[in-house]
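Re: weekly structure request thread

Next one in the queue (256 aa):
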Amino acid sequence: MYKSTTARIVGVSALLAVATISSALAGEAPAVSGFNGNAAIIGTYNDDDRQSSEYGALLLGSATAPLSQEFGFQADAALGTHDGSAVTGIGGHLFWRDPSTGLVGLTTSYLKINNSGPDHNVSRFGGEGEYYAGPFTLALTSGYQNGSNVDNGFYGSATGYWYPDENMRLGIGATNDPEVETAGVLSAEYQPDAMSMPGMSLFADASAGGNHDATSANVGVRFYFNSSGKSLKSRNREDGALGNLPGNSINSALMN
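Done, posted below.
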């Protein structure tokens, strides 16, 4: 009951954000500045009271394209290993965005882990919203997940981001899904001002809490393409949407 109620609260909050952002007039800047993409190499860690610590490595990629002045599309993909098992995943976003105001979109993702025993897979269908206010961003997600050897039900997240610098983003928030229940999340991403490695950033995130004392962490390096010279803040608001892989869609499958 508690986890279902929490997910519904997050879902209602997301819908309110959608209504607020959609009522704003579209600005002059396009939803997506131009075709762009990024690739990330990530090390993963997962643990809970039902299993010993498990480690993995992932290659994530996203490609984003403008569909019109107001709309954009992004495709996400994941490929890697977890505790010796193959991991594959895909995701998609269809969104409206005004870079001066925020973003509203629909999302979907699918992830599979080929275990030596029963395979795990999880599909998600939902929505996302972002509201921009100076150096702050409020990001919300909500939707429904189902799959094989994972719990089915509603999921949601609410995260606040702060840019103390144009090239640094710090995040704090909470997530909820049927498998992990409610957990706190911290994240950070930094894009060094290095001429020799334009478009490179370093990032890390961690979550803890919820069912079975679940914890997870991701650490990696990301490379942005076709948007040279931009700050991290501009990339996040003018180019791609926040990726939905691995995120909790992968953690839901791993925590089992």
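The mean pLDDT is 84. The chain has one domain: 2-254.
Next request, please.
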